[in-house]
Amino acid sequence: MLPFQLIIRNLSKSYGELQVWNRLNLTLDSGQTYCLMGSSGIGKTTLFRILLGLEQPDDGSFSLEPSPGCKLTAVFQEDRLCEAFTPIDNVYLTAGSVLNRRQIIDELSRLLPRESLTRPVSTLSGGMKRRVAIARALLSPSCGILMDEPFTGLDERTRHLVIEYVKEKTSGRLLVVATHQEEDMQALSGILLCPFDVISPTIQTAPPRLC
Amino acid sequence: MSPSSRIRKIVILLFWVAIWQTAAQLIDNSIVFVGPYPVLCALFNLLPTPGFWLSVGSSLGKISLGFLAAFLCGLAIGCLAYHFTLLREFLEPIIRLMKSVPVASFVILALIGIGSENLAVFISFLVVFPILYVNTIAGLENTDQKLLEMAQIFSVTPAGRFRCIYLPALLPYLTSGCRIALGMSWKSGIAAEVIGIPSHTIGENLYMAKIYLSTAELLAWTIVIILISALFEKVFLLLLEKGVRLCFRFS
Predict the structure, then answer these.
(1) What are the sequence ranges of the domains in chain B?
(2) Mean pLDDT per segment of 10 residues, for chain A of length 211 residues?
(3) What is the distance between the alpha carbons of residues B224 and B56, in angstroms, rounded to a whole number?
(4) How far apart, in whole angstroms, are the C-alpha atoms of residue A159 and residue B225?
(5) Which of A12, A49, B49, B197 has the highest CB neighbour count under 10 A?
(6) How many helices (DSSP H) and strands (DSSP E) are in chain A?
């Protein structure tokens, strides 16, 4: 995959009176990891939804340049797994075009206990589901992954394991992680993005910045 | 079920049979009210006759045929109507009509139009179709929007979406719809047969029992209907579950 940039131009989004984003400008490089930090309800999920094409911005645009011919995938804030199916089936559903079941089992075994792979997802613990959702996003074909608070519900050791796995699997791709945890950012060696402070009624026209 | 609750159930059942027996003795009129013993005798008299099995087979076959056709049509047309709103709006009055017109009217209409031979097929279809249609749409509307967004993001194939997202949402609605529809198809199918009196059917036998004022035989047939209906429901729901399980499994 050739290097590309995700360029966000003058992006604005509001819900009624509530201005979530106002003329956001950002340029993100592939192969990098960015951490989107900020307190809850500040618009991280909204930005992801817009970048995923699930919502339309009120104004402005974004694009991948030069177009790498693939799309962005995500780890949603909720797991969004097919509960009646096994972790293997869940990953196969989205990554079946590039991986066979054998490979999927090998990959999942790195994050989850072997016996959990053939059980319906509904019987797994919260942390296990989280890992399945992360594995799904990493193993499916994409050129960039947006992760919305991906490490919630994971204990310290698992978190470390998962972060190492994420770093390995995203090489060359664009990774944006929304998180509250500063240590996640350090562990991911991510670049801090906090374009939120511009959204105050008094300085609405000020250009957003990287911080 | 624990042994103690099983015993309790049996005792309660025996209690009501005893009440039935006592009432029959008090009334002492085998036409108006018949006790459990003559009913059992009538049932055992029926069992060895070929006519009995012919009637059961014929009614069961016809009603199941109508049910299965309605199940498939309700499912297929329900899916289409969910997808194409215009089709759904077009079908709306027809579905309302099917749900609100009394079965007896349909029976008479069908008797004039198609005769009594395939009456039960037609009637059980008419009763089952709207139930399955409505439940299919309700199940699909209940599909998790968040999973559909996920499918969109990950470019999941239509077959994958159907199997992993729509089918699990549809299943509880389909099962409860079938449960209602199975019982209704039987009751209305038999009622239609009683009105149309096609030969060698359960309905015809019920009708004959009425003509000859043979209450014991009437109740014996009723027991047969209840048993077959329960069995039919069990078998069908089991097959449905098996079929869905097969779909849940990736190759």
Answers:
(1) 1-33, 34-248
(2) 85 84 86 83 85 90 82 91 92 92 93 92 93 94 91 89 91 88 84 61 38 47
(3) 9
(4) 61
(5) A49
(6) 6, 8
Q: For residue range B4-13, list pLDDT tens digits in order.
A: 889 999 999 9
Interface list for chain B against chain A, based on CB atoms closer than 8 Å: 146-147, 149-150, 152-156, 160, 164-165, 168, 248, 250
Q: Which residues contact A60 (CB under 8 A, 6 or more apart)?
A: A8, A9, A10, A11, A12, A23, A24
CB neighbours (10 Å) of residue B59? 25
Q: How far is CA A184 from CA A37, A83, A189, in A?
A: 11, 28, 8
Contacts of B16 (CB under 8 A, 6+ apart): none
Tokens of B85: 């709103």
Which amino acid does the sequence have at A87? P
Q: How much of chain B is in helix, strand and coil states, percent to nearest 5?
A: 85, 0, 15
What residue ranges do the domains of chain A occupy? 84-141
Q: What is the ipTM of this complex?
A: 0.86
Q: Which pair of tokens denotes residue B172?
A: 């509880």
The backbone torsions φ and ψ at residue A36, rounded to the nearest 5 degrees and listed phi first, read: -95, 110
Q: Per the CB < 8 Å rule, is A84 touching B154?
A: no
Q: pLDDT tens, B11-39? A: 999 999 999 999 988 988 888 888 888 89
Residue showing tokens 């008090």:
B26
CB < 8 Å to B153, chain A: 52-54, 71-74
**Number of Cβ pairs closer than 8 Å across A and B?**
46
For residue B164, give the nearest of A52, A76, A93 by CB distance: A93
Q: Does 3.30.70.80 match the CATH number of domain B34-248?
A: no
Name the CA dihedral angle for B86, B89, B94, B99, rounded to a multiple of 10 degrees.
130
Beta bridge partners of A145: A73, A175
Q: pTM of the prediction?
A: 0.80
Nearest-CA distance from B162 to chain A in Å?
11
| Pairwise CA distance, residues A22 & A24, whole Å | 6
Nearest to B17 by CA among B37, B45, B46, B44: B37
The H or E element spanning position A82 is none
CB neighbourhood size of B160 (10 A): 19
